[in-house]
């Protein structure tokens, strides 16, 4: 299946390179398979993202605070090389950081800390600290490029009949712009591998990878929620429990050696390991969230504890809504659709939205709604936010010069980001409620990312979907068919 044959936006865009693919094109492209093309495109776009960071690599990280913002090339990576003790050979989670750092221990999950440490080991000691920081960023960029390729290839292999959908990931502007801001791509790559294993009906391997991903970033654990709902509806409990228990086991294997400390007083939780969780709880309202808009516009802003409570309550309500949608939809939703909605709910309700968080959603969006028009609308909103946050930081760090975006302008780009994500959520929900509009299912597929759920019949359904039309018969994909016409409106 080629995007220029199925998507009008892709067909129009292809005019720049000669138009839609012809019927004889396969004869000339037998060696250049879709997966290889996607991998090459991903590397090319990643390299363009590195070029976009060139002003900072050539000095803007060090000549002044506002310069790295006006060039929109900021990255946490070089700053944390010295700021988190890697330059001094300190061991993450075990060695306390100097008092002038403002952070007692590394505030990242264990596997991300290991990723950072491996990059530090590969960074030469010679030269000035600035030279080492630049080399550290370059080493991390190389490792993150491998993660980017893994993500795109996994997306291509999940929907085996639609590998070209992975071009949405490879060509996503926000993917290239945010890939080297932080270490999120590592967790995203593990998550993509987990979804690939689930799609190949390997729940044990999928669970291990989800557990490892959650040990690198907390959000991948949210995928267990959609799996619970969908396995409940399909009655596939064995696959779910195998995934959930293996995920917990993998997470414990990675974390327990760092988490538990023993001394004369007995066993206790290591303070360095817990720093990620306590920091997440204690940090106040921060960039990118609607909570920041509220706090900047309120005379008496909400306390951190209140925001934590309200954000948690909102997230739980969203999860209940997604669960209800999964159990009452006229046809069982695809795994990627519910996964996207749950992670998007976390992004929308969280008290902070760093620009690289868009990386969490891009592979899920490509699988949930593989349509270029909707994807590009959302990406335009995310690029606007990417530029807006750096211009706002330039404004706040430029002193009396006030170069950049003022507070009101930054609040506007936050709203643009929120509305763009909500728009994509809305079209995914529409596809769930109106399965005949789902571009994946139009081709006769049920749930390519569903693994054991693909083609499974329903065992537990709520609402009108639990009472199919009289004389209706359920086919192998969970769709009710009456007189040769499916209840979802498709033939």
From TrEMBL:
The UniProt entry lists the main location of this chain as membrane
Family designation: Belongs to the glycosyltransferase 87 family.
Q: What is the lineage of its organism?
A: Bacteria, Bacillati, Actinomycetota, Actinomycetes, Kitasatosporales
What is this entry's stated membrane topology? Multi-pass membrane protein
Highest rank taxon of the organism? Bacteria
Could you tell me where this protein is found in the cell?
Answer: Cell membrane
Protein name as it appears in the record: DUF2029 domain-containing protein
The cross-references to InterPro entries, in alphabetical order and at most eight, read: GT87 (IPR018584), UCP010361 (IPR016570)
What are the entry keywords?
Cell membrane, Membrane, Transferase, Transmembrane, Transmembrane helix
A cellular component term, taken from the record's GO annotations = plasma membrane
Transmembrane stretches in the record are: 33-51, 135-156, 168-198, 204-232, 307-329, 375-395, 410-433
Asked whether the UniProt record includes Cell membrane among its keywords, one would answer: yes
- According to its UniProt entry, this protein's organism is Streptomyces aurantiacus JA 4570
* KW Nucleotide-binding (keyword) present: no
Q: Which GO terms describe its molecular function?
A: hexosyltransferase activity
């Amino acid at each position: 299946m080629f995007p220029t044959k199925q998507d009008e936006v892709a067909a129009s865009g292809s005019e720049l390179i000669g138009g839609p693919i012809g019927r004889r094109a396969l004869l000339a492209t037998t060696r250049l398979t879709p997966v290889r093309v996607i991998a090459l495109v991903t590397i090319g776009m990643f390299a363009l993202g590195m070029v976009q960071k060139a002003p900072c690599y050539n000095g803007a990280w060090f000549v002044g605070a506002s310069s790295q913002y006006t060039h929109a090339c900021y990255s946490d990576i070089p700053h944390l090389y010295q700021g988190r003790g890697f330059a001094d050979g300190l061991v993450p989670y075990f060695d306390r950081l100097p008092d002038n750092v403002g952070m007692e221990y590394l505030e990242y999950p264990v596997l991300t800390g290991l990723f950072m440490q491996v990059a530090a080991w590969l960074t030469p000691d010679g030269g000035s600290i600035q030279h080492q920081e630049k080399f550290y960023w370059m080493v991390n960029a190389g490792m993150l490029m491998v993660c980017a390729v893994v993500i795109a290839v996994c997306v291509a292999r999940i929907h085996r009949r639609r590998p070209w959908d992975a071009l949405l990931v490879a060509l996503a502007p926000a993917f290239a712009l945010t890939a080297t801001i932080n270490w999120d791509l590592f967790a995203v790559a593990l998550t993509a591998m987990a979804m690939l294993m689930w799609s190949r009906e390997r729940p044990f391997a999928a669970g291990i990878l989800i557990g490892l991903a959650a040990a690198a970033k907390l959000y991948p654990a949210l995928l267990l929620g959609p799996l619970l709902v969908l396995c409940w509806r399909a009655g596939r409990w064995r696959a779910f429990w195998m995934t959930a228990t293996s995920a917990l086991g993998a997470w414990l294997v990675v974390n327990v050696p760092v988490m538990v400390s023993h001394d004369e007083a007995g066993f206790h939780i290591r303070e360095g390991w817990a720093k990620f969780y306590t920091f997440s709880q204690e940090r106040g309202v921060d960039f990118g969230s609607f909570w920041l808009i509220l706090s900047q516009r309120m005379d008496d802003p909400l306390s951190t504890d209140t925001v934590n409570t309200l954000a948690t309550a909102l997230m739980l309500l969203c999860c209940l809504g997604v669960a209800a949608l999964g159990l009452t939809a006229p046809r069982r939703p695809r795994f990627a659709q519910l996964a996207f909605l749950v992670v998007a709910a976390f992004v929308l309700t969280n008290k902070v939205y760093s620009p690289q968080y868009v990386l969490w959603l891009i592979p899920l969006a490509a699988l949930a709604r593989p349509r270029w028009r909707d994807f590009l609308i959302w990406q335009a909103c995310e690029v606007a936010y990417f530029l807006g946050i750096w211009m706002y930081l330039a404004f706040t760090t430029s002193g009396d010069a006030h170069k950049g975006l003022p507070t009101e302008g930054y609040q506007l780009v936050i709203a643009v980001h929120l509305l763009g994500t909500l728009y994509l959520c809305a079209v995914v929900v529409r596809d769930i409620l109106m399965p005949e509009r789902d571009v994946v299912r139009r081709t006769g597929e049920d749930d390519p990312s569903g693994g054991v759920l693909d083609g499974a019949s329903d065992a537990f359904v709520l609402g009108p979907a639990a009472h199919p039309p009289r004389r209706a018969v359920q086919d192998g994909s969970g769709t009710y068919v009456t007189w040769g016409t499916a209840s979802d409106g498709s033939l």
